[in-house]
Amino acid sequence: MRGAMRGDVTGVYTRLGLATFKVRQPARLRFCPDCLDDMEADHADLWWRREHQLAGIPVCSIHGTVLRHSDVSAGERNRHSFFAASREVCRTDAALAVEGASSEDMARLAELAVAAAGLLDAPPDPMDHGGRHDAYRRRAADVGLMRSAHRIDVVALHGAFRHRWGGVTELIAGLELGDDPERSWLTSMLRSRARAVHPLQHLMLAVMLDGLDGIEVDQPFGGGPWECRNPVVDHAGQPMIGTVAVRRDRDIVYGDFQCGCGYLYTVAKDRDGKVGQPRYRRFGPTFAPALRAALSRGESLRATAKALRLDPKTLMREAAMAGVEVPWTTKASGALPARDASAPTAAAPARATRKRRPRRNWFAIDTRLARSARMAAASIRTARPPVRVTHAEVERRIARRDWIVKRSAKLPRTVATIAELAEPVDAFRRRRLADHVASASDLRPCEVLRTVGLPSSWLPLVREAVAGVQRRGSRVA
Predict the structure, then answer these.
(1) Region 35-57: what's the mean pLDDT?
(2) Where do the structural domains in the chain lie, given as residue ranges?
(3) Whole-model pTM?
């Protein structure tokens, strides 16, 4: 692919395997009616969301509602044209992206949409095709889906997959498992390294494996899915949350439960295993529309707070952060957001905004530093007296101290290169010993051992190195 990008790009889709995928891209740009309402209410403008255009994802990752097809074709003819999202092309009676899904399958589709949208903003670490295949087999073995080191339990694999995804495979074209488990794409993913499958199939298999109880799974809050506590959405109280972010503070374990609608709450578990009550953390994009609707109905502060399941002071703080004007005078809890600098008041003049730095191309920086790391390691190996090639020494020569360590997430290639070039202690001792005996005049083993700074256990190796130098010297004489 890199060679094709530098020259002839003919057949790029075939080389990528895109032409063989049965999961097809949508023929028209898609939209979520609820997202359009939120966009108009919050920003007075509409736009296309990229997660709505993902192949095989027919529901919105934010609201969990079924997407609709707009009037804008996504075909080859319009690829260089601009079509703004508008109510004219995003009609409320447009065709649905999927029909006939049960409530259970809708919940599964919503979770799949959240997982797929997450890959756009936080893609996983790169892994070659063979490495990913091996990782699947190791995970399948950990959760009991392998009969032996080489044989897959096909029946158990398909049973677990159907239990996890229900009728989703029948709702999305290209994901059908068929009647013969031995010949399905799911079995092929764990058996063959040669077959390329759609990213959606990778995602579904990975989510299924991660959701099974295994020896490597730590679930302090039990198995999911967990209920969404957002009181203003249709799926309130339903198990819509598939993953929980676990963090620890001393002896207390905290679980952050975030639904696809944006609502986030936290549950704590103490050292005795007692699980506390859920605590509100963030409402998400559904807060502002719900609050405006309550204001239009003329509801009081306490009635609105009760309907949103918030404390009145917390509601005031959230309203200030969302920029919604309210008629109530109750003081908000916690710190309020800073006043907008574009609308200064006489009592509080606008503070000068800080000039933003231009965005860095971290991919280019990573590539350059990885190349510099190899050059620095080669230079270190030629130093006299010998210097060990370590992460700190390489980093000191190509950047400031701890600069790479603090940005390791943005510089994966550099970090991997330095780890590859780092010299083990024993390897450095051997190199230092060889350098010393090649140039020293006093080749008594004990003296060499002391000068080079080696432990006494290295005395046999020192004698062997000294004897080798002496044999070469006698042949030259």
Answers:
(1) 92
(2) 21-118, 124-211, 226-282, 362-423, 437-476
(3) 0.44
